[in-house]
Amino acid sequence: MNTIFNSAQRRFLSIIYLLFLSSLLNLNSASAQDAEKTFKLYCGVCHSTGANKLVGPGLEGVSKRVPSDAWMTKWIKNSQEVIQSGDVYGKKILKENNGVGMPPFVFLKDEDIASLVTFTKTLTKKEGTASKGTDTGSKKGVNPIALLLGIIAVLIIIIGVLRGIKHSLKNIQNEKQGIPKEEAVGPWKEVKMWIGLHKRITAVLILFFIGGLLSACWYALMGIGVYTGYQPSQPLSFSHKIHAGANAINCVYCHSGAEKSKTAGLPSVSICMNCHKGISKGPITGTVEIAKIYDAAGWDPNLGAYTKPQKPVQWVKVNVLADFVFFSHQLHVVIGKQACAACHGDLKTMDAVKQVQPLTMVWCINCHRTTEVPGIKDNPYYESLHKKLAEKYKGQPITVDKIGGIECGKCHY
After folding, report:
1. Residue 345 and residue 47: Cα distance in Å, rounded?
2. In this structure, are residues 112 and 32 in contact, taking their beta carbons and an 8 Å threshold?
3. Residue pLDDT, tens place only, 375-409
4. Residue 32 banded pLDDT, cuts 50, 70, 90
5. Among 230, 225, 253, 258, which residue's Cα sits nearest to residue 336?
6. What's the gap between Cα 195 and its chain centre?
7. How far apart are CA 47 and CA 60, in angstroms?
8. pLDDT in tens, 54-109
9. CA pair distance 381, 373, nearest whole angstrom
10. What's the topology of domain 46-120?
11. DSSP assignment string, 150-200
12. Most distant CA pair in the chain: distance in Å?
């Protein structure tokens, strides 16, 4: 009986070990076969899994909107080729998104794209529930660590029960044979005895435990400073939806630095007064918020004159980069011809601005790897460079990374 129990005990411990090992491997896996991870890495920066629009449209029910799975596969691979082929639906999507096209993902394997197409079929609106589109990374699944701990707890209980049964049966047998009853051995003492007999296995388990702990710490630290969805309250309830959307005010009218310098800049209250000398009531907040503009500008609407000194509006910054990161709005907007929505989301649909993109290094690098350099073919200044690049990368699009866009010194001092 002792031999049978030890064998069972070894099997239980082997199961715990294998579960622990597989959990660690799953936590550290970045397999391209995992469609959800692939979606979060490449698609989630521009698309929500709900109906709400970020840079591109929300993907809820997209499998029912597109012509076919084959069409979606081609679109993910290279949407520009689909549009240039004269595809009607592709041109319709481009028009609906104000000409902001989707970058090509030619580097993804066919099986990765197939898994993404399958994943989009799960993004359907459930009956009787309202759609709640999520930002990147907000979708929560089963926590593998919690699942593992739960399995281990159940196994420990089973082992404890078996130990009790074994001890009782052993004493019944001893009683029949006239042998004194054995004292129950505590679980910790038995664990110590097992460790003493299995030092190598114990050492391996400890190493895997330490590795799992370090892995969990690493991924926790990776999330520090990533504030996707951050939407602070502002001193003025300024609506981009009304100004940039309904009134179609150009972004650079207020953020004039976007085309001229590293920073886009915030408008002074004088810029606001260019319009609000004559507009004293808004469609949503009436006169309440515009009165705050008058107060900051020192404007008396009754006298129609400035009667007090101006005071700045203390706006709360939404998108914040680390001090050691160099980013130029002029380089991206003027030279790179990037739409504001690529980084800031579709502000024309937002009342209060929120951070749409994670603004992490991997997000920037992925963008540089998929964004084609605009205007390089038609600019005589780059004629020699374009010729060399075209020879080096035959048949491939000239993306930003191919002209040094992912070199460390380009973004870091």
Report:
1. 10
2. yes
3. 777 778 788 888 898 889 988 888 999 989 999 99
4. very low
5. 258
6. 43
7. 10
8. 777 888 888 888 889 888 888 888 888 888 888 888 888 888 877 777 877 877 88
9. 14
10. Cytochrome Bc1 Complex; Chain D, domain 2 (1.10.760)
11. HHHHHHHHHHHHHHHHHHHHHHHHHHHTTPPPPPPPPHHHHHHHHHHH-HH
12. 111
Helices and strands counted in the chain (H then E): 19, 2
Pair of tokens at residue 252: 């650079």
| pLDDT tens sequence across 274-325 | 999 989 999 988 999 999 999 999 999 989 899 999 999 999 999 999 889 9
pTM of this prediction?
0.55
Residue 19 DSSP label: H
Range with lowest mean pLDDT among 65-74, 103-112, 208-217, 246-255: 103-112
Angle, alpha carbons 77-36-62 (nearest 5°): 60
* pLDDT digits 0-9 by tens, 308-320: 999 999 999 999 9
Work out whether the CA dihedral 320, 322, 323, 324 comes out positive or negative: negative
For CATH 1.10.760.10, the residue range(s) in the chain are 46-120
Q: What DSSP string runs through 390-410?
A: HHHTTTS--BGGGGTTT-HHH
Distance separating alpha carbons of residues 76 and 80, to the nearest angstrom: 10
Q: Is the pLDDT of residue 20 over 90?
A: no
Instruction: Please provide the DSSP assignment of 193-212 as one string.
Output: HHHHH-HHHHHHHHHHHHHH
Can you tell me whether residue 262 is helix, strand or coil? Answer: coil
Q: Which residue has the tokens 């605009």?
A: 374
The token duo for 261 is 């310098």
List for the chain the helix, strand, coil content (%; round to 5): 55, 5, 45
- One-letter amino acid of 252: V
Element housing 367 (H / E)? helix 361-370
Contact partners, residue 351, CB within 8 Å, separation at least 6:
237, 239, 240, 241, 242, 284
Question: Does residue 16 sit in helix, strand or coil?
Answer: helix
Cα-to-chain-centroid distance, residue 15: 34
Judge whether 76 and 108 are in contact, CB under 8 Å: yes
Distance between CA 313 and CA 41 in Å, rounded?
37
Which residues touch 359 (CB under 8 Å, ≥6 apart)?
226, 319, 320, 321, 343
Strand spans (E) along 225-374: 299-300, 305-306
